[in-house]
Design goal:
The protein folds into 4 domains: about 1-200, TIM Barrel, CATH 3.20.20.20; about 230-305, Orthogonal Bundle (Methyltransferase, Methionine Synthase (B12-binding Domains), Chain A, domain 1), CATH 1.10.1240; about 310-320 and about 335-465, Cobalamin-binding domain (Rossmann fold); about 475-790, Cobalamin-dependent Methionine Synthase, domain 1 (Roll). Helices cover about 45% and strands about 10% of the residues.
Length: about 800
């Protein structure tokens, strides 16, 4: 029911996907549903159905998808990257001849969609293909895995899958795979009969029991080194590397020969989607140990020459930003593919990056950043590269970066290739194309065409925004009955400092889902552990993480500190919050500032600002506000250095990722204590960790730099209010990133109607008003709020 879907769209904080719409009920209904989805900023799955029914041939599949695509783009204005086509995965091996080509037809239609419908995505319900073999999990598992493998080759982006019914493609027994692919690829007329007959021999499934198998140790040294690298086994790497050295003319030849052969296998498997990021990082650990063993021998033979790499890449987190997990992961993946990566670290000024690139004669520069101010710094680096006559390709990556920002803001300032790298899996392919003359020319043409479309669409989006004036938006603020509401009085006003918070208490509050996302394994915890595609590797990663977490807690690898405070407060002048020195409210501590949603909303939906959830001064209702800053990872550097000195990137990245998770857990736990103890407005709360993660409690803790309050310049007010640096040692960089990096800060609001929201785009009148209220010039405000501007600032 669309009323249910719309109710869900109103509640979801982030971007969601509506599954699904189609032309089944005609164009009018299709357009109506699509407009509703677009109004809420969601993506949509489009089924290959029309008034005549379900598409089941290549031509019909593509014809319906193209018709839907044209309507969505031309009549609805739907962003093409938010369109996910489902060309219908239908059941094969049914015994009916007309069904034999269903899988092949899906693959062919997928190729046509990717070739002719730019930026659209392809999905499908995977379990449908094997429905003929329900009850025979081993066969279904093999069919799903093989179908997904060939679907990915055709351009498939995602799939709806059944947990527990998919194995690793390379682990499918050869004979079973032959029978399955005969059916899926319609290779022979008797494929169905042969698979049905063979299926009886595998019914019931194979045992999942793991055994330590050292059979691989019987292979020659090349086979052993390759196996160790692919499987991430470091146990025998020194003795195998020594054996290879004894056989080689020079120690350098071991790196350029057998070790690189093994790493090429790793790169190929990762590129084909048969290995996942944690496995690649483990492979890098083994490779680095082997290289470290060989280095003294290479040094002893000075005339040996240099190790030949595929190219030299300078990488850095830009000035003002201290986050580096994503950059480090990309660096490891590139090193695994024989690129020489020179990592300059974090908070690196533009000129330092450019000087080092010149000094080392680099082939590519890669910039990373997580906080929004880093976007502006990346623009600055690109302009400096142009001014200083650089001709190197520039790769852009990090959580806040995007293809749109790269095209609209960065690419226009630099005449040579500027490429947004979405994740680590794309970095190698892009680098390879950039360093091959013919492929670079082709990529440059693709980028120009793509970026022109992105810029045109960006300009079109700006023009299509239905604005409210700031006064109209304020008039549509959330309606709260302050006359009949009494805000809870905190049990304890003022500041509370936590010097060395027990890590064991925080470990039980971890939200594991973002941990897997950091390792580029998509899925919600704990379901991800039984996921058809990544489940096995996710389980290994989780076991490694739990083992390290246990050591962190027991051996106190680092400490956790925090400060929080509760204060009298009221909102003033629509969008600001005054914080007072005492209950009498006769002394002003400071004024915090919020921003208001300014685009036109559907009837009945307000234009939110955080100040709406604090009682207005004129109501004479005495309200309160809280603030906090937490961090873990104090003293972690020594352990990180120990891992890096041991060439163990896997453990170094793992430790940083766990510190991040513990910091978020700390924020969650402290918020719970605020509700139950310090503020005490929900002292009887008994929520478990899953309910805490799902935020099934009263009140919110919005953080500067996040969607409801994207302005990082509000952060220093929290530091001033709580004396954060003095009380905890958590510092702010010039771009207001927090150090240690595993840190969270924000404010507490208690009203039952308080909720998270995304600010979205704002217009010039609000920027001018905000500039006046904060006492900052307009250009500064535009710089800090660049991602939220609904207009192009004057240069």
């Amino acid at each position: 029911k669309w009323s249910v879907i719309e109710a869900g769209l109103r509640c979801v904080q982030g971007k969601c996907v509506v599954n699904s719409i189609s032309l089944k009920e005609g164009e009018e209904k299709f357009i109506e549903h699509a407009r509703l989805v677009r109004r809420y900023g969601a993506a949509v799955v489009v089924m290959a159905f029309d008034e005549s029914g379900q598409a089941d041939t290549t031509d019909r599949r593509f014809e319906l998808c193209k018709r839907s695509y044209d309507i969505l783009l031309n009549e609805v204005g739907f962003p093409p990257e938010d369109i996910i086509f489902d060309p219908n995965i239908l059941t094969v091996a049914t015994g009916m001849e007309e069904h034999n080509n269903y899988a092949v037809s899906f693959f062919e239609a997928t190729r046509l969609i990717k070739e002719h419908l730019p930026h659209a995505l392809v999905s499908g319900g995977l379990s449908n293909v094997s429905f003929s073999f329900r009850g025979n999990n081993p066969v279904r598992e093999a069919m799903h895995s093989a179908f997904l493998y060939h679907g990915i080759q055709a351009g498939m982006d995602m799939a709806i899958v059944n947990a527990g019914q998919l194995g690793i493609y390379d682990d499918i027994p050869a004979e079973l795979l032959d029978h399955v692919e005969d059916v899926l690829l319609n290779k022979r007329d008797d494929a169905t009969d042969r698979l049905v007959e063979f299926a009886d021999t595998v019914k019931g499934g194979a045992t999942k029991e793991k055994k330590v198998d050292l059979e691989w140790r019987k292979g020659d040294v090349q086979e052993r080194l390759t196996h160790a690298l692919v499987k991430g086994i470091a146990e025998f790497i020194v003795e195998d590397t020594e054996e290879a050295r004894q056989q080689a003319e020079k120690p350098l030849h071991v790196i350029e020969g057998p070790l690189m052969v093994g790493m090429n296998v790793v790169g190929d498997l990762f590129g084909a989607g048969k290995m996942f990021l944690p496995q690649v990082v483990k492979s890098a650990r083994v490779m680095k140990k082997a290289v470290a063993y060989l280095l003294p021998y290479i040094e002893a033979e000075k005339g040996d020459g240099e190790i030949k790499s595929n190219g030299k890449i300078i990488m850095a987190t830009v000035k003002g930003d201290v986050h580096d997990i994503g950059k480090n992961i990309v660096g490891v993946v590139l090193q695994c593919n024989n690129y020489e990566v020179v990592d300059l670290g974090v908070m690196v000024p533009a000129q330092t990056i450019l000087d080092k690139a010149k000094e080392l004669n680099a082939d590519i520069i890669g910039l990373s950043g997580l906080i929004t101010p880093s976007l502006d710094e990346m623009v600055h680096v690109a302009k400096e590269m142009q001014r200083q006559d650089f001709a190197l390709p520039l790769m852009i990556g990090g959580a806040t970066t995007s293809r749109a920002h790269t095209a609209v803001k960065i690419d226009l300032g630099y005449e040579h290739p500027v490429i947004h790298v979405k994740d680590a899996s794309r970095a190698v392919g892009i680098s390879t194309r950039l360093l091959n003359v013919d492929m670079k020319e082709e990529l440059t043409k693709e980028l120009k065409k793509d970026y022109d479309v992105v810029r045109e669409r960006h300009a079109g989006k700006q023009a299509k925004i239905h604005w409210l004036t700031l006064e109209q938006a304020r008039a549509n603020r959330v309606s709260i009955d302050w006359e009949n509401y009494t805000p809870p009085v905190p049990n304890k006003l003022g500041i509370e400092v936590f010097e060395d918070y027990p890590l064991e208490e925080l470990a039980g509050c971890i939200d594991w889902t973002p941990f897997f996302i950091a390792w580029e394994l998509a899925g919600r915890f704990p379901r991800i552990l039984s996921d058809e595609i990544v489940g096995e590797e996710a389980t290994k990663l989780y076991e490694d993480a739990k083992a390290m977490l246990d050591k962190i807690v027991k051996e106190k690898w680092f400490s956790a500190k925090a400060v929080c405070g509760l204060f009298p407060a009221n909102s003033i002048g629509h969008d600001d919050i005054e914080i007072y020195t005492n209950e009498e409210r006769d002394g002003l501590l400071m004024t915090m500032h919020s921003l208001r949603q300014q685009t036109q909303k559907p009837p009945g939906q307000p234009n939110f600002a955080l100040a709406d959830f604090i009682a207005p001064e004129e109501s004479h209702v005495q309200d309160y506000i809280g603030a906090f800053a937490v961090a873990t990872g104090f003293g972690m550097e020594e352990k990180i250095k120990q891992f890096e000195d041991d060439h163990d990137d896997y453990s170094a990245i793992m430790l940083k990722a766990l510190a991040d998770r513990l910091a978020e857990a700390f924020a969650e736990r402290l918020h719970q204590r605020i509700r139950k103890e310090f503020w005490g407005y929900d002292s009887d709360e008994t929520l478990g960790n899953e309910d805490l993660i799902a935020e099934k409690y009263q009140g919110i803790r919005p953080a500067p730099g996040y969607p409801a309050c994207p302005d990082h310049t509000e952060k220093p007010l929290i530091w001033e209010l709580l004396k954060v640096e003095e009380n905890t040692g958590i510092e702010l960089t010039e771009s207001y990133a927090m150090y240690p990096t595993a840190a969270v800060s924000g404010i507490y609001l208690s009203h039952p109607q308080s909720r998270y929201f995304g600010l979205g785009k704002i217009n010039k009148d609000q920027v001018e008003d905000y500039s006046h209220r904060k006492g900052m010039n307009k250009a500064q405000i535009e710089r800090w709020l660049a991602p939220n501007l609904g207009f192009d600032p004057e240069v």
